[in-house]
Amino acid sequence: MFGYRVPAPDEAMLISGGRRGLGGAPFRVVTGHGKFVLPVFRKTRFLSLAMSEAEVVEKCVTRQGIALTVRAVIAFKVGNDHESIVNAGQRFLSDQEQMSVLTGRIFAGHLRSIIGSMTVEEIVTERQKLATEVLDTSKAEMAKIGLHVDSLQIQSIDDGDTGYIEAMSRPHKANIQRAAQVAQAAATQASAEAEQAAARKQAEFARQTAIVQAEYDAEVDRAKAQADQAGPLALAHAQQEVLIAQTELAIKQSELREQELASEVVKPAQAEAERIRVLALAEAERMKIQAEAAASHDRVALERMLIDQLPQIVKEAAGGLAGANVNVLNGADGLGEIAAGLVGQGLTILDSVRKNLGGEGAGDGGATGKSGGAEVERYEVR
After folding, report:
1. What does the alpha-carbon distance between residue 269 and residue 274 come to, in Å, rounded to a whole number?
2. Cα separation of 371 and 378, whole Å?
3. Residues 13 and 158 in one domain
4. Where does this protein have compositionally biased stretches of type Gly residues (predicted)?
5. CATH of the domain at 129
């Protein structure tokens, strides 16, 4: 709108003409909002409230008489309060560049004054103290012209060709170098000790490894020796087992053979002996019956009957010898003697029956039986 003016955020609008401002100021100050300004009757100017910078390069003499070139940077601006804006407006509104020039000159003077009361050692080692003192001494003076200093930085201090700062630093450099050498020696010693410790550990590890390897090799050798011995021992054990098994088999075969012999020879002989015994008992029973019959019947008829039974008796006696194990000692004569013996036995039996029935011929019957026994002795039954 025509006649309405608004200042920027970092500006203060100064309106002159008309009534005076606060505190008898020759202009009114407007910040942060706009205002309607009558053309022709009012005049509007703007004062920058932005940050500004001033650089100072000043040659100063210390309390020791040593010349130093000090370089510093000052950051400043117009104060935000009404009084500072009025003071700065009255001084710098027409030429705002003069704020940096004037600020540099003010700080240069304070730097010369303060550095003149300090030694080079203090200036070099206590730069922050120097900056603080300069700010404190310049604060009231800067406020009078409406300026506010935000910071002061001492960038460099140079003694030119005097070499004082260099000489001053030599003891410190020597101490530093000595400390560095000591530290280096300590580090070297520590490194050497570490290397020695590492070497000892490696040697111990190698020794332990060698021991373990030796134990392992010994164990392997023992296992191999046991394995080598296991073959012959196993073979001998197996052969012993085979011999034992063969012995047990031979014993079992012997027992089996004994059983077979008992089955083939002993039992048949026992059966044959039993058969002969049974036949003898039967014959004796038959004789008894016949004797009893003879007592009640005719003697002639009985003898006839005995004569008729004589072949049967001889046959039975021969049958008893059929299953026996008979060894003939004298060939064909022996066979004839066996046959004659059988017939003689039959006759002896017949003669005995007769004697028992009639009581006659007892002596002859004994001789005949004896003769029959003599004949039988020519063969043996097994």
Report:
1. 8
2. 12
3. yes
4. 360-372
5. 3.30.479.30
